[in-house]
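Ticket #4471: structure export looks truncated?
Reporter: QA, pipeline team
Priority: medium

Steps to reproduce: submit the single chain below to the structure queue and open the exported record.
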Amino acid sequence: MSPVVVFLLLFAGLSEAAGRILPLVARRPGMSRTLVAGLLLPAGLVEGAVFALWPLTAWTLAELVLSSPPPGTGLEWTPSLVAPLVLAAVLAFPLLGPLLHLLLVVGVGAGLAGPLGAATGLGWWGAAGCVAVAGAGLGVAVEGVRRLVVRISAARVPETIT
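Actual output as written to the record:
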């Protein structure tokens, strides 16, 4: 993966995490900046890792669907494929439109389906199914992690503003 792609994935992850954390901060004005940064950085890394794993997971599912595994090393992000993902992550802020964000993520998945279908010979619809299942599975996994973190964080005593 090129450094540009890594940077774009990390930026998308931080933007996605900010879109989820900042509305919580707005509802709880007593949160310290240190706590917000402490939540934002790991959450951004987790979101970036989930984005990075999406093509690899779709490739793995395509291998499972096919009777003979396709030759090659897998599907990777390219700057042209990851740019719409960055736009979708930037639009993750709830006030800017969750429906638009969802449509952009679906568009990114459709963009991944083309290269996956060409690399595996699975066809566009089969590849789109693998991309959708991979995205949904990763989304469910990261949502489970989010809920666990919220549950653990709720048990802690809130910090005072200094």
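Status: closed, not a bug. The export was complete when the record was re-opened. Leaving a note from the reviewer for reference: The chain is about 75% helix and 0% strand.
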